[in-house]
């Protein structure tokens, strides 16, 4: 079952001689439960692509469909609600609310949507990520790896259709990066979670089921599904 599909996605900045094609006809799909890494150098278009997929920016042309819903058919309010309920984000900078403790950060997106957190489900995420003893801690008392675990738990709390990870290990040392990627993959398998991650790190990309390579705004290869 396709959970994500892009068709002839383009993002163009400027006109004439100053025109820049950040994305130039990108088409691909992701199956439910698949872990896909999008690899590219700085300026290749991978961050722009992630923003299109996540509904954080609007393409110049083409379309993005997430869980059967085409994003371009939604107005700003509808897109905000859809994003909150169906798309989880894990950023390089963690983006935790520093005045809230770990538990409050994790359940924040669910509460902002006016829903009650599913405590049994969320506690299972917390257990897998090894955060049981940190529930009352503020982000400032956590290591970088622990803060990224909280960000992963927060992204999963609303049971999104897709989780988007933007250079999730960019601020971590190599050992912590390996630990975080192992936990991200484990939670993906445990909860049959679809994950799309962008990275410039080839070693990190190898943890995914499939690798897509982007260069100058175009997909150069679709990668292969690996058996683990």
Layout of secondary structure:
Elements: E1 2-13, E2 20-31, E3 35-39, H1 46-53, E4 61-66, E5 69-70, H2 76-86, E6 87-91, H3 102-112, H4 119-128, H5 144-157, E7 162-166, H6 174-190, E8 195-199, H7 202-205, E9 210-215, E10 218-221
Parallel strand pairs: 3-8, 3-9, 6-7, 7-8
Antiparallel strand pairs: 1-2, 1-4, 4-5, 9-10
Helix pairs in contact: 3-5, 4-5, 5-6
Q: What are its keywords?
A:
7 helices; four-stranded antiparallel beta sheet; about 35% helix; six-stranded mixed beta sheet; about 230 residues; alpha/beta
Offer a quick outline of the entry:
The protein is an alpha/beta fold and 228 residues long. Helices cover 33% and strands 27% of the residues.
What does this structure look like?
This protein is of the alpha/beta class. It contains 7 helices and 10 strands. It has helices at 46-53, 76-86, 102-112, 119-128, 144-157, 174-190, 202-205; strands at 2-13, 20-31, 35-39, 61-66, 69-70, 87-91, 162-166, 195-199, 210-215, 218-221. A 6-stranded mixed β-sheet has the order 6-7-8-3-9-10, sandwiched between helices. The protein has a 4-stranded antiparallel β-sheet with strand order 2-1-4-5, with helices on one face. A hairpin with a 6-residue loop joins strand 1 and strand 2 (20-31). Helix 4 (119-128) packs antiparallel against helix 5 (144-157). The chain is globular. The model has no long low-confidence stretch (mean pLDDT 91).
From the N-terminal CA to the C-terminal CA, the straight-line distance is 20 Å
Query: What is the H/E string?
Result: EEEHEEHEHHHEHEHEE
- What does the overall shape look like? globular
Strand content: 25-35%
Which stretches are low in confidence, meaning pLDDT under 50 for 5 or more residues running? none
Spatially, the strands of the biggest sheet line up as: 6-7-8-3-9-10
Rounded mean pLDDT is 91
Count of helical stretches: 7
| Main beta sheet | 6 strands, mixed
Sheet/helix structural class = alpha/beta
């Amino acid at each position: 079952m396709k959970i994500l599909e892009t068709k002839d996605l383009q993002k163009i900045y400027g006109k004439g001689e100053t025109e820049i094609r950040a994305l130039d006809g990108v088409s691909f799909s992701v199956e439910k439960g698949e872990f896909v890494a999008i690899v590219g150098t700085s300026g290749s278009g991978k961050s722009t692509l992630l923003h299109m997929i996540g509904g954080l920016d609007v393409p110049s042309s083409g379309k993005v469909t997430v869980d059967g819903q085409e994003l371009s058919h939604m107005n700003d309010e509808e897109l905000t609600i859809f994003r909150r309920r169906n798309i989880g984000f894990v950023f390089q900078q963690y983006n935790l609310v520093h005045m809230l403790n770990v538990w409050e950060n994790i359940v924040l997106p669910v509460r902002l949507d006016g829903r009650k957190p599913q405590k049994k489900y969320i506690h299972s995420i917390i257990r897998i990520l090894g955060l049981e003893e940190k529930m009352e801690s503020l982000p400032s008392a956590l290591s970088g790896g622990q803060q990224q675990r909280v960000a992963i738990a927060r992204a999963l709390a609303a049971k999104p259709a897709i989780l988007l990870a933007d250079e999730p290990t960019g601020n971590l040392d190599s050992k912590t990066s390996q630990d975080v990627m192992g936990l991200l993959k484990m939670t993906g398998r445990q909860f049959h979670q679809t994950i799309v991650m962008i990275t410039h790190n080839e070693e990190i990309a190898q943890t995914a089921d499939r690798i897509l390579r982007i260069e100058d705004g175009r997909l150069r290869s679709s990668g292969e599904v690996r058996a683990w």
